[in-house]
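Q: How would the structure tokens look for this protein?
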Amino acid sequence: MPSPDEIHVIKWLSQYGALPQKQVVKLLNMPQNSAEKFLRLLKADMRITDVGGGYYLGLDPLSQPDQRIILAVWVLTQFANTVDPMAHYPATYPSQIAFLKGDISYEIIVLYEGEGSLLKLLQPEEDMKYIIVLPDISMAHTLKLPKAPCLFATVDFTGKDEPTVRFYSGGM
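A: Here is the predicted structure in token form.
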């Protein structure tokens, strides 16, 4: 019988595709050594596999990482200790990930330069909040925001495997 953690890892990789191993470790919300040992056991049991030379994990070695999803998951990892491991899932375009934190629904949407018009496709519902991930926070002042609470985030790698995620206040 699979453990709850095994079920979580398989669910995440099946819904998001290949993810950096460091993200999966953070989402597991356990000590790093324990998480890495657990992932090695899953690989040994052939439940998951290395992708891209071992930087990524996937359910099959031909999985292709989606960079928008990866950026959205880096933002999600900032909530790993407050969001149930089964309470996040792929969102409807143009958002990448939806999750529940308490009674509030959040959607993470990753925008690249010049993609501000994608926000027009969002259909906010009551108790919905958006986290808009931008390549640079200066892009925020050019956006026409949906009629819902918004936070902005940036994901800055600056030569590291694990980026710094910064949050900024948004508007209504």
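The longest strand covers residues 104-110.

Helices lie at 4-16, 21-28, 32-44, 67-77.

Upvote if useful.
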